[in-house]
Amino acid sequence: MKKIVVIPTYNEKENLEKIVAAVLAVDAENEVLVADDNSPDGTGEIADALAKKDARVHVLHRATKAGIGPAYRDGFREALRLGADLIVQMDADFSHPVDAIPRFYELCEEYDVILGSRYVDGITVVNWPMGRLMLSYFGNLYAKTVLGGLPVEDATGGFKCWKREVLEALGLDQVRLNGYGFQIEMTYRAWLLGFRLKETPIIFADRKEGTSKMDLSIAVEALLMVWWLRFQALRGRLGNKPRPALP
Ligand SMILES: Nc1nc2c(ncn2[C@@H]2O[C@H](COP(=O)(O)OP(=O)(O)OP(=O)(O)O)[C@@H](O)[C@H]2O)c(=O)[nH]1
Ligand SMILES: [Mg+2]
Predict the structure, then answer these.
(1) DSSP letters of 19-67?
(2) Model confidence over 185-195: pLDDT tens digits?
(3) Residue 185, ligand 1, Cβ within 6 A
(4) 3-234 — its CATH code?
(5) Does the C-beta of 132 come closer than 6 Å to ligand 1?
């Protein structure tokens, strides 16, 4: 089994070396692909130095900052090209606990997509301001409802594991949304195509080092764009079979 953990980065110089070491330590078969958007703080050069020292580290340099959606789409294509069977996506900032990765792989024996979830075992978020937690929690309830009962409590989470076949079937070229919308779109497409999804609880911690790239416009975009996703699905435009029209 070839296992590649894709980590998008933009200005993560404080975190990169440590997160790569942690990912490599948690499973002897893990490889890492850093997808850097030409970070002004030199994260890309740090990634190159790590790759030079260790053949398990790969780097994808993208020309400009374009958000997490395009970085992941390119990163996933590169992971597939490198021959990955299992592809994990995670943030560089230690919000996602690396110890969950072996559990993701075990669950892949029975399921096709594993989602690290903040909302399946109560609310497992540490150190977030109440306002941000509310936005995330209620945003998820809203997305799930608009999307016709998408069976996932945490659709905006960014810590997941994909079987190769799923990423091949999804049609990465057709994935349109960015930010939280990207996370929702990927999971929604996988569900519409009939893949087996499984959420597993993770304890999500706010970043300690580096700076946030999240802002309110990313959240607002996602809130609006879930309607677009629903209508695309009704028209059979997400690789799925068209559903009967709304009553
Ligand atoms: N390649 C690339 N990576 C990005 C971009 N924006 C964010 N990232 C990375 O995506 C991951 C998630 O971004 P964060 O800034 O942590 O976003 P967040 O988790 O919603 O917010 P905070 O944890 O509060 O910072 C991190 O590893 C970022 O470095 C981008 O435009 N391009
Ligand atoms: Mg973060």
Answers:
(1) HHHHHHHH-TTEEEEEEE---TTSHHHHHHHHHHH-TTEEEEE-SS---
(2) 999 999 999 99
(3) no
(4) 3.90.550.10
(5) no
